[in-house]
């Protein structure tokens, strides 16, 4: 049973995940380097902690939702970090989108402490985190996944076993690489058609009933005014930031080098989002790629 849960990283994703755990009656001890994130959730009923050790001490499960590789590695391995205070028999689930090697490094260190590590990145974004409909992609032992599944289902609607340690992250990175590429493809196609004089709505309709159809064209079209409820129709605010997709494509780049798998489109996409990030578009939704291409057009 999970009578105490530690949660570290209370940002856009972590905060609603904690709220959903509490809604299902769980006691959650929370920590973030930003104090206001802690006090915010403490007001909502969580136990606010002023250190990682305090959140981890005595917890049956510890979930981390941190920005990138170095934050996860540090939070686990530094003095006063998770591995120092984790109790025997506890489950450690990292839901951050990081390099698969992070999981492969931390899993054996957790085992030495008598704890069980799983990589469990999520898809569904902040909307899914709020609604409690995330999909967890799990890497580690399948029998261990089964034990934490009820806990994860407080925050998500699907838990999928992907393979040994790191494979949850491989699945996540492959998906995000494809999203990064497909968004650029749709932005390029829409911009081309519009520049040639095509009505954007008619063009979108054609794409969405033809072979170019994909999530980026149909559910998340990057041209403002095509779909009223998505970030492209709200000055690219919220959604999935350019800096985050650039980070994920950077991970794809690293693992592609290690594996020998060529990712020419993924590499190109990585460079394009990096350039957009350098042009101060890092906080904008990734669909801003359309506006970026439009502005480069003559
Ligand atoms: P975020 O930046 O909003 O939140 C991260 C939080 O971690 C921040 O509150 C930050 O203060 C905290 N933090 C940083 N270093 C810390 C440390 N050493 N100790 C404690 N807290 C620390 O990011 P997010 O959008 O919540 O994303 C978290 C992870 O989930 C990322 O890896 C991201 O790629 C992934 N992800 C995000 C989305 C999304 O739509 N936002 C969707 C799926 C996956």
Written overview of the protein:
The protein is an alpha/beta fold and 298 residues long. It is built from 14 helices and 9 strands. It has helices spanning 14-23, 35-43, 52-56, 69-77, 82-85, 100-112, 125-131, 142-152, 167-195, 200-208, 215-218, 242-259, 264-281, 289-296; strands at 5-8, 28-31, 47-48, 61-64, 91-94, 116-119, 122-123, 134-139, 156-163. The strands form 2 sheets. It has a 6-stranded parallel β-sheet. Strands 7-8-9 form a 3-stranded mixed β-sheet. Helix 1 (14-23) packs parallel to helix 7 (125-131) and helix 9 (167-195) crosses helix 12 (242-259). The mean pLDDT is 97. Bound molecules: nicotinamide-adenine-dinucleotide.
Largest sheet, order of strands side by side?
Answer: 3-2-1-4-5-6
Task: Provide the gyration radius in Å.
Answer: 20 Å
Q: What is the 3D shape?
A: elongated
Please report the total strand number as a whole number.
Answer: 9
> What structural class should be given to the helix and strand makeup?
alpha/beta
Distance between the termini: 62 Å
Average pLDDT across residues?
97
Low-confidence stretches: none
Fraction of helical residues: 40-55%
Biggest beta sheet attributes: 6 strands, parallel
String of helices and strands: EHEHEHEHHEHEEHEHEHHHHHH
Count of alpha and pi helical runs: 14
Ions, cofactors and other bound molecules: nicotinamide-adenine-dinucleotide
Percent of residues in β-strands: 5-15%
Protein topology:
Elements (H helix, E strand, L loop, with lengths): L4 E4 L5 H10 L4 E4 L3 H9 L3 E2 L3 H5 L4 E4 L4 H9 L4 H4 L5 E4 L5 H13 L3 E4 L2 E2 L1 H7 L2 E6 L2 H11 L3 E8 L3 H29 L4 H9 L6 H4 L23 H18 L4 H18 L7 H8 L2
Parallel strand pairs: 1-2, 1-4, 2-3, 4-5, 5-6, 8-9
Antiparallel strand pairs: 7-8
Helix pairs in contact: 1-7, 9-12, 9-13, 9-14, 12-13
The structure holds nicotinamide-adenine-dinucleotide.
The site of nicotinamide-adenine-dinucleotide has 25 residues, from helix 4 and helix 7.
Subcellular location: Mitochondrion
Pfam family, one: NAD_binding_11
Main location: mitochondrion
């Amino acid at each position: 049973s999970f009578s105490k849960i530690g949660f570290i990283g209370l940002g856009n994703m972590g905060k609603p995940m904690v709220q959903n755990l509490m809604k299902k009656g769980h006691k959650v001890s929370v920590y973030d380097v930003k104090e206001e994130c802690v006090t915010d959730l403490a007001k909502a009923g969580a136990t606010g902690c002023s250190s990682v050790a305090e959140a981890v001490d005595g917890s049956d499960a510890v979930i981390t939702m941190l920005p990138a590789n170095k934050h996860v590695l540090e939070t686990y391995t530094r003095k006063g970090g998770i591995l120092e205070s984790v109790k025997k028999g506890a489950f450690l689930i990292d839901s951050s989108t990081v390099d698969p090697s992070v999981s492969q490094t931390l899993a054996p260190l957790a085992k030495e402490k008598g704890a069980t590590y799983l990589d469990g990145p999520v898809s569904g974004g902040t909307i899914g985190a709020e609604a409690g409909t995330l999909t967890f992609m799990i890497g580690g032992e399948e029998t261990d996944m089964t034990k934490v599944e009820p806990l994860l289902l407080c925050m998500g609607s699907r838990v999928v076993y992907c393979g040994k340690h790191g494979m949850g992250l491989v699945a996540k990175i492959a998906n995000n690489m494809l999203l990064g590429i497909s968004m650029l493809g749709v932005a390029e196609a829409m911009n081309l058609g519009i520049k040639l004089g095509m009505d954007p709505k008619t063009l979108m309709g054609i794409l969405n009933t033809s072979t170019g159809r994909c999530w980026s064209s149909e559910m998340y079209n990057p041209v403002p005014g095509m779909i009223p409820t998505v970030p492209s129709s709200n000055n690219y605010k919220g959604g999935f930031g350019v800096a985050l997709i650039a980070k994920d494509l950077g991970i794809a780049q690293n693992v592609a080098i290690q594996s020998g798998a060529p990712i020419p489109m993924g590499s190109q996409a990585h460079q394009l989002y990096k350039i957009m990030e350098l042009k101060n578009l890092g906080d904008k939704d990734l669909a801003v790629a359309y506006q970026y291409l439009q502005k480069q057009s003559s």
